[in-house]
Design brief:
homodimer; about 200 residues; mainly alpha; Tetracycline Repressor, domain 2; about 0% strand; DNA-binding
Chain lengths: ~200, ~200
Amino acid sequence: MVRTKDPAVRAMLIERAAQMLAAREPITLRSLVAGTGVSTMALYTYFGGMDGLWKAVRQEGFTRLAARLATIPATADPVTDLTALGAAYLANALANPDLYRVMFEAGFELEDAAAADETLHYLVQGVERATAAGRFRAGVDPLELAVQSWTIGHGLASLVVTGPLPEAALGHGVPLLTALFTSAGDDPGRCRSSVERGWSPAV
Amino acid sequence: MVRTKDPAVRAMLIERAAQMLAAREPITLRSLVAGTGVSTMALYTYFGGMDGLWKAVRQEGFTRLAARLATIPATADPVTDLTALGAAYLANALANPDLYRVMFEAGFELEDAAAADETLHYLVQGVERATAAGRFRAGVDPLELAVQSWTIGHGLASLVVTGPLPEAALGHGVPLLTALFTSAGDDPGRCRSSVERGWSPAV
DNA sequence: CCTCAAAACATAGCATTGTTATGTATTGTG
DNA sequence: CACAATACATAACAATGCTATGTTTTGAGG
C-alpha cells in the first residue's frame, strides 16, 4: 500500500555528510545530494530537513564514539581501564574533530542526550567495577564520578578540537583523570604502571 | 580628507548582537540592523561581513569573562582564590550561555586565542601565587596547572551550556578543582573551609 | 493478477540569506 | 574653500533551505 524507504539511501547520505565534514567542505542541501543520484527531496523524505540531517549526523558521531569505547577490554585493573576509556575518548575526538564539534554544537536535544547517556554508561560501568574491586572509597557515586571523568575528557577534547589548545595538550588527559581517581580514594601508586606503560590519546 | 567611523556604531551593533543572542533570536544581517537606523552596509564598513561580526562578538564574550574574573580579590588563601576564579568562570558561562557557546564555536582563530590567553593569565597568576606561598609542590608548572584548571572549567561549562548536563552539575566544579589542586600538592584539609563556606557557581 | 492509493521521488519556484555593485552624501585635509 | 576619500544608502545578485506541484513506483486488498 505504501512505497517503502530504502535505508541504504539514508545511511549513504549520513556517511557522505561525515566525509564532507572531515574534508571541511561546506555541507549544503544541494552539495550533499550532488552526484549521489538522489534529488534534494530525498533529504526531506529521510530526515525532514537539514535539522534532521544534523541530528542524524550527531547520532552517527555518538555511535562511532561508542564503538570505539567498546573496544577497550576489561582487564584486572579497572582504574587503568577507566584511564584507557578516557584516552579512547580523546583519540576518537582527535580522529574525527569536526564530527566531534558537531556533536556538541547548538541543536543538542533529548534524542542526543540518550546517545550521550549510552556513552556515559561505559564510564559508569567502569567506575562500578573499580568500586567493586575496592579501588575507590565506599560511598563514591558511580554516576557522579563518571560525569566528572566525562567533564575532563570533553573539556580537553573540546578545547583541542575548537582550537584554543594544541594537540599536545591531550597529554593532560591521563594526569587529570589520575588526579580525579586519586581524590576518589584510589592509591596513585597502583596507577603508575599504566601511566608508565605510556597511554597516549593519539590513535 | 576622510570620513571617520563612529566607534559608537560598532559598539552598538556588538551590544545588539549580544542581546539578540541572549534573547535567542536568530541573528541575520538584516535583523541585526533593523530598527537601528543604520543600513546593512554599516556591518561591512565596521566588520567586513558577518564573520567579522562573529569575531567581534567572541571578543566581547572574552572581555566580559575577563571583567568578571578581575573582580575576584586576592585573599590570604591563594588556592581558595583559584577555586573562586573557577566558580566565577562557571558563573559567567551560566549568565551568558549563548555568548559562551559562540566563543568556542567554529571560527575560533588567532585573534581569539589572544583573548583566551588573557583569560588564562588570571589562572596562571593564581597558580604562581599559590606556588609562591608554598601550597603546591615545587616544580609545578603554573601554565600547565592553569590549563588543567581551564580544562575542567570549560568542560563543565560547555556540557551545561550545550545541554548534556543540567545546571546542577556545575556543583562538580569545586570538587574537581580541589582534586586537581590536591594532586598538585595542596593539603585538601586547608581548602575544606572554602568548600564549607559554600562556593556556588550560581551568580 | 489486478487495482489503487499512499508514499517516494523529481522539478520548479519562493522567500531569505550574505554579499557586492553602484551611486550619493559627508567630512577631514590641504 | 575645494576635493577626494570614505562612510553610507539602495538595489541587484547568487546561493541557501524549503515548499508546492506533479509524476512514478509499489505494496496491500480483492
